[in-house]
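Lecture notes, part 5. Sequence design as translation. It can be helpful to think of inverse folding as translation between two languages: the language of shapes and the language of residues. The source text, in structure tokens, appears below.
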């Protein structure tokens, strides 16, 4: 039997979902509608801003739906009117009811940003960096009513570089997601995509980030702190206390060596950045941002606010 996939509904919201939708369009798939989150106020002016997926859909003439409620029979009737053979979800941002997942003949598949069953949840890319993973990847999965618990259809891995932030890794993962999605559709059409049940014993969670995770504990290792800085960039941004203000840190790396100084001590500062003692090894920081100012190199920061070795960060 050859699976019929003529009509597709795509559900997605942020920039991460754009390459998946673009891949469908480049592959000449018949995307009959796009479902995305409502426009949200953004920026200092709180101007109502459309989601990136909506912008792409409207630029290509695809019908856009932005429901505030997705569990109503009225909304499901609207979806039925499009007669989708398949629904594809990439970072839509809301939990979908089973009645919607099962509505198309081929059900609903998801482009998820981890190698399931690891990192089920809302922040798999960030959590992978925070946990010091060396590898992550994309999973195409058949959605069920659980939190990323459905059968695995296809996976591909990606190395995490030591300078990757959540932003840079997300961009690479998004591109991989679009590529893998097209491969999955071709295999699905040929009935060559057998589902593989997830091993729940290997599952880990990836809950949403929160601001409480952003404060740096200098007694941790330099590696753990570097993962924190990279994993929380661009939000909520790791910070430490300096002269009663928050100082955000960026572009970090680990320098081997067992510090004799107390954790948080500024041990060296030069054109390469700030070298700070931690619970294990030293942390080199190349960029900073103080409250009310722009992100800048350590060199630029020093021009307006000289620092001396021996001071301690994180001391309130």
């Amino acid at each position: 039997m050859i699976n019929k996939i003529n009509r597709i509904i795509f559900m997605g919201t942020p920039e991460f979902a754009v390459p998946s939708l673009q891949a469908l369009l480049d592959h000449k798939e018949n995307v009959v509608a796009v479902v995305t989150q409502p426009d949200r106020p953004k920026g200092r002016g709180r101007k109502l801003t459309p989601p990136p997926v909506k912008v792409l859909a409207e630029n290509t003439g695809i019908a856009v739906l932005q429901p505030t409620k997705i569990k109503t029979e009225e909304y499901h009737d609207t979806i039925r009117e499009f007669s989708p053979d398949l629904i594809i979800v990439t970072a839509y941002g809301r939990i979908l009811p089973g009645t919607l997942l099962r509505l198309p003949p081929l059900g609903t598949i998801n482009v998820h940003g981890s190698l399931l069953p690891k990192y089920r949840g809302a922040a798999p890319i960030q959590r992978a960096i925070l946990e010091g993973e060396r590898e992550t990847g994309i999973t195409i999965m058949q959605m069920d009513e659980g939190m990323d618990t459905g059968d695995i259809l296809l996976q591909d891995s990606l190395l995490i570089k030591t300078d990757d932030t959540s932003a840079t890794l997300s961009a690479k993962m998004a591109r991989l997601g679009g590529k893998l999605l097209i491969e999955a559709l071709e295999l699905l059409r040929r009935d060559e995509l057998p589902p593989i049940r997830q091993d729940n014993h290997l599952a880990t969670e990836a809950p949403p980030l929160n601001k409480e995770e952003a404060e740096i504990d200098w007694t941790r290792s330099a590696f753990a702190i570097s993962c924190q800085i990279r994993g929380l960039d661009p939000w909520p941004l790791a910070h430490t206390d300096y002269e009663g203000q928050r100082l955000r840190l960026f572009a970090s790396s680990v320098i081997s060596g067992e510090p004799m100084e107390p954790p948080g001590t500024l041990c060296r500062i030069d054109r390469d950045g700030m070298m700070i003692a931690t619970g294990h090894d030293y942390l080199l920081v190349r960029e900073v941002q103080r409250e009310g100012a722009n992100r800048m190199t350590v060199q630029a920061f020093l021009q307006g606010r000289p620092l001396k070795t021996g001071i301690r960060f994180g001391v309130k």
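The translated text above is only one of many valid answers, since several sequences can fold into similar shapes. The radius of gyration is 23 Å.
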